[in-house]
Amino acid sequence: MDSIKLEINGIGVEVPNGTSILKAAEQVGVKVPRLCYHEDLSPWGACGLCVVKIEGSPKMMRACATPCAPGMKITTHDTELYNVRRTVLQLILSTHPNDCLRCARNGNCELQTLSEEFGIREFDFPKRLRDMPIDNSTPSIEVNPQKCVQCGRCVAVCQQMQGVWALEFLGRGDETRIAPAADVKLNDSPCIKCGQCSAHCPVGAIYEHSDNKAVYQALADHQKHCVVQIAPAVRVAIGEAFGYESGELLTGKLYAALRRLGFKAVFDTNFSADLTIMEEGSEFIKRMTKGGPLPLITSCCPAWTDYMEKFADDFVDNFSTAKSPQQMLGAMAKTYYADSIKVDPKSMYVVSIMPCTAKKYEITRTDDMYSTGYKDVDVVLTTRELARMIKSAGIDFRNLPDEKADSIMGEYAGAGTIFGVTGGVMEAALRTAVTIMTGKKLEKVEFMDVRGLEGVKEAKLDVAGTEVRIAVAHTMSNIEQVLDKVREARKTGAELPYHFIEVMACRGGCIGGGGQPHGATDTIRKKRMAGLYKDDEISTVRCSHENPEIQRIYKDFLGEPLGKLAHKYLHTHYKAREAYKV
After folding, report:
1. Which of 30, 78, 172, 233 is buried deepest, with most CB atoms within 10 A?
2. Of the candidates 450, 452, 446, which has an alpha carbon nearest to the alpha carbon of residue 469?
3. Model's pTM, two decimal places?
4. CATH C-level class of 91-208
5. Under 8 Å between Cβ of 352 and 379
6. Is 371 exposed, middle or buried (0-12, 13-18, 19+ CB in 10 A)?
7. pLDDT at res. 156
8. Does the pLDDT at position 74 exceed 80?
9. First CA to last CA across the chain, in angstroms?
């Protein structure tokens, strides 16, 4: 049976077999309340808010986890269901703090929204708050277990989507709480700082470590020369905080907003994404033609590199040593740019606007992140933090004019902007690598086989008579199947399944990063992806090696890809690390 017919609130509907009641209700324009359910995760009916009535059944069933059956007659809303849901909400609120004004999710909290919708103005049950400390041991995310509503999303994300198992439910009954496995500090756990737990949390139990105050202080310090860079994925998500449709391309308004905040120069991480391609692409060509550890694996995602060092250290030698675009721009800002405007690098203060919480960790990861003699990037703000900063500064974002980035490190190719989507790094690298290896300009720069939200994408290319096998994986739980294929080939002496692998920790790549606006689903991710592909399509230059500012920086400063200065400022190293710090 491919489809089934049923009634919801007296309205007939036909849905595919296996559809949940919750999804069927949406097809007839009915929203069933929910707190634990998320489209990315398997439903498990933890909160009990989505209960519905089924004619002939003595029990109320949870709509998120109950599949439709032929002939069902379902009631989603009546007085009894309203009272049950209101009681469930009251019970949740009885163990939840009332400090909404100080909460990172104030005004954007699913529990707060439900409470308003149900008109809760008083409490029917006494407060039963437990004194549990905030875990702020990482530079990326913080955990406040007192605000946990035990929806289970963070645990499911960490274990099922990411395969990291850093978070778990500890204790039983009233003593249940979320915490890192083994009850260690988050920074001592296998956590890779991807922030997907915070992106999926419906309340303020997990959130990004805020650095807004540090940035405001730096902007007020006249001894500092504050500059800023924006990552590719920020420009197609920031608008969601200001009423725009997901995926709206708002690059020019972002440049304008950042200038109004007081930054002396506005750069674009897309530029340094092009720079990354020059180094990483050259690295790939060198390994393919002159020998070296294959497959080459991308290393621009700090959550992925953290995972690799902890769980896949047998691939340390396969990692590209090229730094991420964020770190490359920071290093160039404190050398190339500082020298060009005759500013002491010591006074330079580099701020990154990133879609990623792991970027906060990356800026302190190794000594290589201080390659200029100073911290290459001083502070990282997520897309969410920047949105708050723009609002608090009184900037009317929607009515800002479109402005341009500062020349010297602001111009970018289309290849640089697609870094923000899964498959984008691979596609950008291939545009340059294939051109160099064949000696011919590409007539078609799109590599469609690496696009889309499929967890693992594979392709084979004929490059000047050489077969190049590639793989793209996103969402951490997908990467092991790719690595295991390589391990098996190593073990048996068979031909390598891949020469080049791209990995991004978050679903969809950076457009679905842990620091992006809350509420991301695949529908939203696809819109954000479309925005970046649009940016690529409208770009005059679409290959990194053709970017005039990239050509200039090598001519005037770096010399050549993989050269002495490039290695000093643009490359890093990796090493095996323990998943648990004990």
Report:
1. 233
2. 450
3. 0.95
4. alpha beta
5. yes
6. buried
7. 96
8. yes
9. 54
Of 108-117, 263-272, 463-472, 537-546, the one with minimum mean pLDDT is 463-472
Opening angle at CA 548, ends 543 and 552, nearest 5: 125
One-letter amino acid of 28: V
Q: How far apart are CA 89 and CA 80, in angstroms?
A: 14
Q: Within 10 Å of residue 364's Cβ, how many Cβ atoms?
A: 11
**pLDDT at 483 (0 to 100):** 97
Q: What is the 3-state secondary structure (H, E, C) of 244-268?
A: CCCCCCCHHHHHHHHHHHCCCEEEE
Radius of gyration of the chain, Cα coordinates, nearest whole angstrom: 25
Domain parsing of the chain, residue ranges: 3-77, 91-208, 226-570
Which whole-number Å values give the CA distances from 245 to 250, 448, 511, 536, in the listed order?
Answer: 11, 25, 14, 19
Q: In what order do the strands lie in the sheet with 73-75?
A: 11-16, 3-8, 73-75, 51-54, 60-62
- 95 contacts 126 by C-beta, under 8 angstroms: no
Helix (H, G, I), strand (E, B) or coil at 1: coil
**Quick one: CA dihedral 26, 29, 34, 36, positive or negative?**
positive
Using a 10 angstrom Cβ sphere, with 0-12 exposed, 13-18 middle and 19 or more buried, the burial of residue 568 is middle
Cα diameter, the chain: 80
Do 476 and 164 meet the contact criterion of CB atoms below 8 Å apart? Answer: yes
Helix (H, G, I), strand (E, B) or coil at 15: strand
d(CA 503, CA 295): 12
Express each pLDDT in 552-563 by its tens digit: 999 999 999 999
Instruction: Give the residue from 179, 180, 198 showing the smallest Cα distance to 189.
Output: 180
Give me the amino acid identity at 220. A
DSSP class of residue 524 equals H
Q: Which amino acid is at 166?
A: A
Residue type, 42: S
CATH domain 3-77 topology: Ubiquitin-like (UB roll) (3.10.20)
Helix, strand, coil tally for the chain in percent (to 5) = 45, 15, 40
Helix residue ranges, H only, 72-186: 79-94, 110-117, 153-156
Contact predicate 196/514, CB 8 Å = yes
Superfamily of domain 226-570: Fe-only Hydrogenase (Larger Subunit); Chain L, domain 3 (3.40.950.10)
How confident is the model over 314-323, as a mean pLDDT? 96
> By C-alpha distance, which of 340, 405, 334, 407 is closest to 371?
334
CB 135 within 8 A of CB 230: no
Q: Residue 530 in contact with residue 399, Cβ under 8 Å?
A: no
C-alpha 544 chain-centroid distance: 23
The answer to whether 199 and 323 are in contact (CB under 8 A) is: no
pLDDT at 403 exceeding the cut of 70: yes
3-state secondary structure 350-365: EEEEECCCHHHHHCCC
**What φ, ψ does residue 110 adopt, rounded to 5°?**
-70, -35
